[in-house]
Amino acid sequence: MRNVVRSEGYARARVGIGAVAAGLGAVTLYRTVTTVGFKLEALPAYVLGAALIALGYVRWREYRTARSRA
Amino acid sequence: MAANAGSPPLTPAAAAATPTLRRSVTPWGSFSWGYSDVGADIFVGLGLVLGAAAGASNVAFLFAGIVYVCVGLAYTELAAAYPVAGGGQYFVMRGLGDIFGFIAGWAVLLDFTIDITLFAWSCIDYLSKLLPILAFTIHPWTHFWTVFLLIVGLATLNFIGVRESSAFNEIVSGLDIASETAILFFGFVFAFRPELLVHTMHGSWPSTFNLMNGVSLAIISFVGLESISQAAQETQRPASVIPRTSISLILTILIFALAYSNLALGMQPSHPLPLDARGHAQELWAFLGNEENNGASVQVLASLVPYYGALAALYVPVLGAILLLISSNSGVFGSSRIAYAMSQANLLPSLFRQVHPKFRTPAVSIGIFCGFAVLELIFAALPSLSPSSKDVYARLFRGEDGITFLGDLYAFGAAASYSFVFLALIALRLNDPASPRKFKMPFNIPFTYKGVRVEFPLVAVVGFAGIFSILFFVMLTHLIGRIAGPSWILLGILGYLAYRRYKGYPMFRSRPHDWRKQQSKILLEAGELELMDEYLANLKALDEQRAKAGTT
Asked: What's the N-to-C CA distance of chain A in angstroms?
């Protein structure tokens, strides 16, 4: 397990999943805007979309830091 | 609780021989440690919140989620700056003094004892979806005895010192994240209808009282951040690793909670739902939040997802039960460890750090807190086991019982201890500016305090207001929580004062602590040598600044 976690493949998989999360976040925001619009009841969906994009950003930043160290 | 590291030093002699825990937890280990603790909460919280907040469940999760992000950021900053296993209790003792440290630790102990019962209860609820003989609503006595035996079994394992390995925890966490992602993916792609979500929110919006009730229950989906600080003591280079893993953990948990609540309100089930007790058609959120399903709502929701549901119905009960069992075990282990740390800090009697001569485990603490857990189980299960007590509960507690009672107290303990942690963070920013903080909560206001430049954390104020309002909601909406929670704290304070008086220690003031020496030792043991050098340089500069300003 430890070797897997330290491998570059694992780091790439994490940034890949992060990219998927960010993509899902963008889709969530787009669908919320087009179906519900800017209404108060859509707030949880907006925060969900933003959190997914933030997760993608965190993963990408981690990957960049790991690569610069290597 | 994930830990492959050695046991904590349990006797003065042993402490001298093995003064520190082995730091062998990797970044993924640190993440999965937290995930196995907090990630299990949604398995319990979803059904309870849907039952209370109905069409506003996603709003309840949003409110609690924002507060949770603030709490998570506070724990991340404090755990990275002070990587010791005492967690909230240690931060509060250091920031606000001994008595407040005791109150925060005592509230955490309440949470850990509830954790044992609540998650053992829910673990059996999930298994009952595969083995109906364990169903609480059909066979309450079987359910009761199974939960009881599970608690006794966990206590025995902890008593003889058997703990699950970190690798096992990491695998279960990884499987659970993949599983939950798959459920949400299939649910959102094939069955989610935004118009249905808006319709449900409009048509089933709860009363203000029920919304507050829902928010107070939603916070239980985010409890367990103590694990961040517990992991900090066993993580390599905690100041660098903890912020990285914590932010990922906070976002992952927030995403799952918001996604599940939105899906439960806006999903078209893949097959028709059964009629309710009065023969009426019921909406998905009501079906998930009823007494029969609220203990295993994630499994029921997963089984209704198109294409994937049939497969999910088979394995989610087992996966959920394992995750909940790990979480229940973290209650047994965590309560004895916190009690041990509090006893070492002279906040609790030495009884709590007594160890078994053969197994070298804190046997007395394990026995006492598992005893409390069994009492809570009896109190929660009594109305279902005895019809006469059901009437009494209906009269005195508005019919609250079982899992709702456990949820009430869980929310109370968490809200109480987190409130103090925010105050401690503010106090430490002002009084201990020399400790290096590799991670700081965002949005700070710099100003001069006692001749030294410090930063006031605005997010801590927002978080304190949020968690305090949740504490208020708990007290307002839960009759049992209103009585049992403060009673626990009050009894604890009386015991603390009696103990301090008996030992001749100051009752309301703190005993002298050499925090500077302690901090250097903490950083040295953590392997953060650069930070230790920075700390010593900061101290020198701080003393010069204070001398110049004429303050001490």
From this structure: 20
CA distance B76 to B70: 10
Q: Which residues of A touch B255 (CB under 8 A)?
A: 21, 48, 51-52, 55
Is the CB of B261 less than 8 angstroms away from the CB of A52? no
Give the distance from residue A64's alpha carbon to the nearest chain B alpha carbon, in angstroms: 13
CA dihedral (B5, B11, B15, B17) positive or negative: negative
Helix locations, B282-308, DSSP H: 284-289, 297-303
Q: Which residue of chain A is at minimal alpha-carbon distance from B202?
A: A41
CA-based torsion, B369, B172, B74, B93: positive or negative: positive
Give me B375's structure tokens: 């009492």
Q: Residue B185 has what pLDDT?
A: 87
Residue B238's nearest CA partner among B546, B531, B539, B547 is: B531
Cβ atoms < 10 Å from Cβ of B335: 29
Whole-number mean pLDDT of chain B? Answer: 85
**Both tokens assigned to B422:** 């925010």
CB atoms B244 and A36 under 8 Å: no
Q: B37-78 pLDDT, tens per residue?
A: 788 889 889 999 999 999 999 999 999 999 999 999 999 999
B297 token code pair: 């709502």
Flag if A36 and B198 touch (Cβ within 8 Å).
yes
- For the purposes of burial, counting CB atoms within 10 Å of the CB of B177, is it exposed (0-12), middle (13-18) or buried (19 or more)? middle
Residue B395 to residue B408: CA distance in whole angstroms: 18
Distant-in-sequence, close-in-space partners of B208: CB < 8 Å, separation ≥ 6: none
Is the CB of A41 less than 8 angstroms away from the CB of B171? no
B62's tokens = 């949003």
Task: Show the 3-state SS of B178-196.
Answer: HHHHHHHHHHHHHCECHHH
Give the model confidence (pLDDT) of B430-483 as tens digits: 999 999 998 999 999 999 888 888 999 999 999 999 999 999 998 888 877 788
Cβ distance of B258 and A47 shorter than 8 Å = yes
Whether ipTM > 0.85 holds is no
**Chain A residues bordering chain B (beta-carbon distance below 8 Å):** 1-2, 5-6, 21, 31-32, 35-36, 39, 41-45, 47-48, 51-52, 54-55, 58-59, 62
pTM: 0.87
Tell me what pLDDT residue B295 has: 81
